[in-house]
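Q: What does the assembly look like in three dimensions?
Context provided by user:
Components: six
Sequences:
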Amino acid sequence: MTPQPKAARRSQTSRQAILNAALDLVGEVGYARLSIEGIAARAGAGKQTIYRWWPSKGAVLFDALMMLTEGEDQEAAELPDTGDLEADLKTVLRATVDELNEPRYSEPMRALAVEILVDPVLAADFTERVDQPMKELKLRRLRKAQEARQLAPEIDLDVAVELIWGPLRSRWLHREGPLTHEYADTIVETVLNGLRG
Amino acid sequence: MTPQPKAARRSQTSRQAILNAALDLVGEVGYARLSIEGIAARAGAGKQTIYRWWPSKGAVLFDALMMLTEGEDQEAAELPDTGDLEADLKTVLRATVDELNEPRYSEPMRALAVEILVDPVLAADFTERVDQPMKELKLRRLRKAQEARQLAPEIDLDVAVELIWGPLRSRWLHREGPLTHEYADTIVETVLNGLRG
Amino acid sequence: MTPQPKAARRSQTSRQAILNAALDLVGEVGYARLSIEGIAARAGAGKQTIYRWWPSKGAVLFDALMMLTEGEDQEAAELPDTGDLEADLKTVLRATVDELNEPRYSEPMRALAVEILVDPVLAADFTERVDQPMKELKLRRLRKAQEARQLAPEIDLDVAVELIWGPLRSRWLHREGPLTHEYADTIVETVLNGLRG
Amino acid sequence: MTPQPKAARRSQTSRQAILNAALDLVGEVGYARLSIEGIAARAGAGKQTIYRWWPSKGAVLFDALMMLTEGEDQEAAELPDTGDLEADLKTVLRATVDELNEPRYSEPMRALAVEILVDPVLAADFTERVDQPMKELKLRRLRKAQEARQLAPEIDLDVAVELIWGPLRSRWLHREGPLTHEYADTIVETVLNGLRG
DNA sequence: CGGTAACCGAGACGGTACGTCCGGTCTTGAT
DNA sequence: ATCAAGACCGGACGTACCGTCTCGGTTACCG
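A: Here is the predicted structure of the complete assembly.
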């Protein structure tokens, strides 16, 4: 999270220990029973060290999850573009489905997603570091599709993003049904073709 | 919530005072700082009286909100059906938009919606008393549309419900943009016609 | 200490456990390292239970020491009066010397005496429950001596109390020398006869 | 305090700033809330600089108070000796009364006196630098009085010092009554003449 | 119609965690 | 080597609530 003190003297050892402890604990006891006190104890750190650098337990967990995905960001600098929008979207959504079915990451991520609904600071951070960049990628891909006449010209691409990626996120967040490749495919097809068929 | 003890001797005075206190407090301090202790104090009730009849503060707030909407349920026993699916859906979504823009009800409702993501007991209760009945209404209307060839026959109606009502709920829950009548209309049109146009 | 809540529902079990824990701990680690947290843990009590009934760790220890001396108070309802003031005072001071040489009680008592110098609430309580009654006893004995012409009529009895009992307390509090029966005798004799002899 | 490192490179600027900060703060918040951290911050010094040269906050305050009284020590190299012991003692005790009624110095001094009761290192330092020299002065004066037959020959001069100067210190330390010139006179007279008169 | 059992208010209790303060140690870079 | 600055681990603070547990007082049903 955005640190108030100058981060120069920050101990990387402590930082790592804290993030690892947070990940371990959230796996063991779940987000609700995760506590800053517990993280500090597990990490062998003072509580103040956590409060100095993070504003909430959600922020710690966020950084911990970001640490896990470090390095992956660069490779996926662009969404796939084979020229076939429908196929490409299915590829992307199926990959997301696979990620979300990985409980090791998915459960803390769900907890974090919920926390974001409730904590504006965390929400801003998430938007800036994750949501916004991802949305740019999506918009870029859709824009090319629109230029290639695979999307109607009057479509608002922001709405398109919501329609394509929203259903998956909703099912995941609300646990409203199983996340399968078939479901991903259905969403893509239906959204592209419309309900009238 | 479904009471465990025989509800015979239950004091309606207390129940009302508790629900009102919960509503007042959630408006004053927000859901995060709402506490059972606070509700009891405000209501002039003992803590035990709350613990006897509700399993969590979320459950109290849920009942409190249900109390507010009592009576409305019957009138809307069916979604409008003028024969024009698109127009009917716009009517329904616009009405929802209006409700969600009422902060007096919307804010506690959001808090409750978030709690539901995290508390399975509450989730089950919500499904049974609100979500399930609402979904039946929606499915019934869509089924008639499908029979009238206004929806493609191969459409899975569960998916259709997600696509039509999901975006609005998502925008609301994630505060991802303004909820307007125009937005409602756009969603309905786009989902019905598909992105390809 | 003077309790704010109505003491009716107070748990005597907890009270005993807390006072015993305080005594044990002060013996083990000393007053400086005595902590309310530690007392609560040792007593198997919640911290709030201590904070509810006592304003400070000094107050807890005070009550604990008072508990130890309970029952003794009544028997010593009057200082000895054989008619020989000097002998009686020596008896009393020698007894005090013996008490103060008992480290089991003396060490916590010293710590408490120091705390009293610094905490006005504790000081008021000590005055009311210990100091004031003791002083009455002393004054009563001296008044009888003055009536019996064993003390000069112009002597201010408050000053006399200070001169007789002060030196012992000072030596004890400041650890300024050994406390012996001889010392007690010397003080009594010198104060009664004066330095000029 | 006696510095452990070789004091060669010691910054006098820092020393002054720290002692002044300590005095200021003890006046503003009292001894209990005085902290080394606070002193360092107020002095614009690092905490380490304090820990390097003083073993405790009491030691800092002690040095600070010594700094205030620097220069006075030499002039009073001897207690007054007009040949009239009673008059001389009254002079000395009255002067002490005046000092102790100066709250600017008296309050921190009281705090320090209390700390000395509890901290053996501080106590040793105080004895060496203040108490012992003062006692020598007192003993010297009393010895001359004893030689001049103004004190009985069998009097233990250590006890005499306790009896003469003790009551004043006790009243001051325990806040047991007002400190006045009359009180000083009464003590001197009563102790010299004895309670029997 | 009187007894009794559940309810109710009040709030004490053992706990857990909070967020803060400060102690005493340590590291860094500047003088 | 000392200094200002301040991060670090750790212990304790005093507070807020949790969920459980008496305690009397009051209904309201049932024998």
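Follow-up: Chain D has two domains: 3-68, 74-195.
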